[in-house]
């Protein structure tokens, strides 16, 4: 068992571990009244780049729930920032 544990640790050091590092919630431009939940995922290796996952939701609360599910799939050992863009522009 110790050999397997050492191999897992070695692989994580070499390849990194995907983790959710930043999240956004903002109104959908293509579907009025809906919200986009976007989570940025990074493997912890400098220079490797960031990927992201998005989900279209019915409400801000649904978007936050989607981000919570994403954080369970890609756990982080630190608190992450969730930016919610719910400001409306006034025309006129």
Structure described in brief:
The chain has 2 helices and 4 strands; from the N terminus they run αβββαβ.
Helix/strand order:
HEEEHE
Please tally the β strands and state the result. Answer: 4
Quaternary state, please?
single chain
Helix content: 25-40%
Count of helical regions: 2
Proportion of beta-strand residues: 25-35%
Q: Which stretches are poorly predicted, pLDDT < 50 over at least 5 residues? A: none
Straight-line N-to-C gap = 68 Å
> What can be said about the biggest beta sheet?
4 strands, mixed
Overall 3D geometry?
A: elongated
Strand order within the widest sheet?
3-2-1-4
| Helix-and-strand structural type | alpha+beta
The gyration radius over C-alpha positions equals 17 Å
Indicate the mean pLDDT. Answer: 85
Structural features, described:
The chain is of the alpha+beta class and 92 residues long. It is built from two helices and four strands, in the order H-E-E-E-H-E. The longest helix is centred in the N-terminal third of the chain and has 14 residues. The mean pLDDT is 85.
Primary descriptors:
single chain, 92 residues, alpha+beta, 30% helix, 32% strand, elongated
Q: How are the SSEs placed, and which strands pair?
A:
Blueprint: H1 2-15, E1 19-27, E2 35-42, E3 50-57, H2 60-73, E4 81-84
């Amino acid at each position: 068992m110790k050999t397997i544990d050492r191999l897992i640790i070695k692989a994580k050091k070499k390849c990194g571990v995907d983790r959710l590092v930043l999240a956004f919630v903002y109104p959908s431009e293509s579907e009025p009244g809906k919200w986009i939940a976007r989570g940025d995922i990074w493997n912890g290796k400098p220079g490797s780049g960031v990927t992201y996952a998005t989900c279209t939701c019915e409400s801000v609360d649904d978007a936050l729930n989607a981000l919570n599910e994403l954080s369970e799939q890609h756990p982080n050992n630190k608190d992450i920032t969730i930016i919610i863009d719910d400001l409306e522009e006034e025309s006129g």
